[in-house]
Amino acid sequence: MTMIDPVKLDRLAEVAVRTGVNLQKGQDLVITAPLSAIELVRAITVHAYKAGAGIVMPFFTDEAITLARYENADDSSFDRAPAWFYEGLAAAYKGGAARMAITGDDPMLLADQDPAKVARLSKATSIAAKPAMAPIVGFEVNWNIVAFPGAGWAARVFPDLPVEEAQGKLMDAIYKASRLDGDDPVANWAAHTKELKKRVQWLNDHDFAALKYTGPGTDLMLGLADGHIWKGGASPALNGVVCQPNIPTEEVFTCPHAYKVDGVVSATKPLAHQGNVIENIKVRFEAGRIVEATATKGEAVLKALLNTDDGACRIGEVALVPHSSPISQSGTLFYNTLFDENASCHIALGQCYADTITGGSEYSPEELQQKGGNQSLIHVDWMMGSDAVDIDGITKTGEVIPVMRKGEWA
Predict the structure, then answer these.
(1) Rounded Cα gap, residues 152 and 172, in angstroms
(2) Rg (Cα) of the chain, in Å, rounded?
(3) What is the pTM of this model?
(4) What is the rounded distance in angstroms from the CA atom of residue 138 to the CA atom of residue 354?
(5) Per-residue pLDDT averaged across 314-341, rounded?
(6) CA atoms within 13 A on the CB side of 176
(7) Lowest mean pLDDT, pick from 62-76, 113-127, 207-221
(8) Exposure pattern of 373-396 as b/e (b: 16+ CB <10 Å)?
(9) Is the Cα dihedral 281, 283, 288, 289 positive or negative?
């Protein structure tokens, strides 16, 4: 018996439907979720149909079934993924369906599995999933991701508590981070988006050529893509629906120039990736490419990630988050990128978002690359901001303008 507050779970479901994906009357909804999150999926389904959904179609994964593959499948299984499934998802999005993803599995589920098999299956899945991910990366449809406090995840975040109690505490943390408290969480999100848009407007007005990062273990000049656009908060997808892709979110973000990043940068928080925790990442960039990478824990996993493809050792997203964000101030390490990325400024290895370049959604991958937009099978965020990091904007004429000081907006 979990200690998850059903009222809080229902409110999360309602906000996910109304504010997150902003489901439209008659629109189908595709949900992907861990089986452990069935309570949340059911609540989302109720609110989706109340909002006028056409068809709600959930697809589930299960931790035990995932482990069964690693422990029993033939070796050849790890170079394959169900392309037919992802082609079906792509057809659904092309037909106008919205997408909602629920995260909540144990982030360390695969920690004891063969890392080579984990890497092989991750790459095979990324290749097979490209048709389904393209409408998401290109922001063609309204989509959203929210979190459910799965037992394994909760036990990682709060290891000293009984699992039922840990789940309740993680639900409380999700609830607070997702701005669901008060009388009207939908209004909370409208006000929050308004504040994020002020930052977006200021950054877009300045149209910086580059950002300069200075802090402990960090001295980085990060060029921005030609025609880059800062984004944050709720935004219209190409289908015209204004949605809030991530709940929670504290970031404003844009597209870096994949070939104009130089210097060193050190991670300020661990990265949970493919069942491993990578700690104290430090990398050196030359002309946009990571030419040296170290970590005190999980270095082999990091290097395997960087070798996924040609774009994996370059970055496709840069995001600014104040150190005073609610998630940062909670002091909780979630081992989940949806939350941890909103506690700190961060960069993402791999694929860029096409809509962070002016006209980018109409460009081919080759045209995006010419603007500086990185192309890769992966998109992995890791944190490199703190209360000791300063960021300056460098204008096209070389003027230096403070953006952040000691982790806060200047």
Answers:
(1) 16
(2) 20
(3) 0.91
(4) 5
(5) 93
(6) 13
(7) 113-127
(8) bbbbbbbbbbbbbbeebbbbbbee
(9) negative
> Side-chain half-sphere of 83: how many Cα atoms within 13 Å?
8
Q: List, for residues 359-410, the tens digit of each pLDDT value.
A: 998 899 999 999 999 999 999 999 999 999 999 999 999 999 999 999 999 9
Surface-to-core class of residue 253, CB atoms within 10 Å of its CB (0-12 exposed, 13-18 middle, 19+ buried): buried
Among 132, 36, 38, CA closest to 81: 132
Cα dihedral: 351, 133, 235, 56 (round 10): -160
Structure tokens at 326: 């609610």
Residues 6+ apart with CB under 8 A from 105: 34, 36, 61, 63, 150, 152, 153
Per-residue pLDDT for 127 more than 70? yes
Please, what is the end-to-end C-alpha distance for the chain in angstroms? Answer: 47
pLDDT in tens, 301-317: 999 999 999 999 999 99
Report the C-alpha gap between 135 and 391 in whole angstroms.
Answer: 32
For residue 192, what are the CA distances in angstroms to 47, 188, 296, 341, 374?
A: 23, 6, 37, 17, 29
Instruction: Report the run of H or E that residue 407 belongs to, with start and end.
Output: none
Q: List the structure tokens of 57.
A: 């179609």
What average pLDDT does the segment 205-214 reach?
98
